[in-house]
Queue: 2 jobs
Job 1
Amino acid sequence: MTAFVRAVNAMDHAALVGLFAPEALVNDQLRDFWGLAVISAWLATEVVGAGLQLTVRVAVRHFEDIVLTAEVAGDFDKTGLPTPLLLDFHFSIDAGLICRLIILSKLHADAAPEIRVSPPGAKPGSGPAP
């Protein structure tokens, strides 16, 4: 996933979009983004738009997946976030393209689980079209 890290750090939106399969899924901190058009918008606002910078700490292959643990910096609200902010990027690849990317906060094994509740009136996430 060197190409992903390079494209993020270069803030290269076109290169990032080109890494994803047309029907890919990104789950970023429990929010689903299905399909290339939606992923492209997510990349534009929350990755490139936030000036994310990744410093890979660990990269491992787990069966057919690749998991990167990276320190994440950028121009986003860091209120309540740990320093350094470590995220796990779980990549599933099909035909050389990212078909699934799951991004999770890196917690210590003895940390309490983080539970989020949607605010009243929040629109639930949508999955792929039937």
Job 2
Amino acid sequence: MNLKKNKMKSLLAVLVLSLVTSACGTPLPSESTGQVPPQVPQENKENKEKQPENVAQDMAQEQQEKEILVVVDQEPKPIEGNSFDFFIEQRPADYSLASMQWKSEKTDIVTTTEQAIKNDTEGIPGENRFVIGGSMPLYSFYYKDELKGEKGKLILVFRNEQGNEKTWEKELTLK
């Protein structure tokens, strides 16, 4: 019985301590006026310099990043040739993948979803190509040795039935 009382006292002490410490950052009302002193917003030079259209673009980009989640895997694989895989973890509602693109200063490869599916069975080994295969599905980009070390962007375009598009892109260096 004594053990239960000690546990209860300890638990109560932790609870009270938690409540007290969680209120530590809360401003107290001013004693003379009874009002909470106004909080001064911190200045952000970046926001001062942004024009309304830039802010709108940034907000749209943030929204797209929340709607689209892609994971790129550039770990070496036990296959011949060079490639990386990517997984579309989240796509915009009512949108499907329309095309994939590798774009750099030297190279611009664009592949539609339909062509990437064909490339899984009909693609020529050793050529630069996007492939969609497997049951997951697995998205891959195969590239020649000449592209190793090239810096560029993986660009994915999603399209809905009305023809509206949303784009996701990530800068990569081909390994």
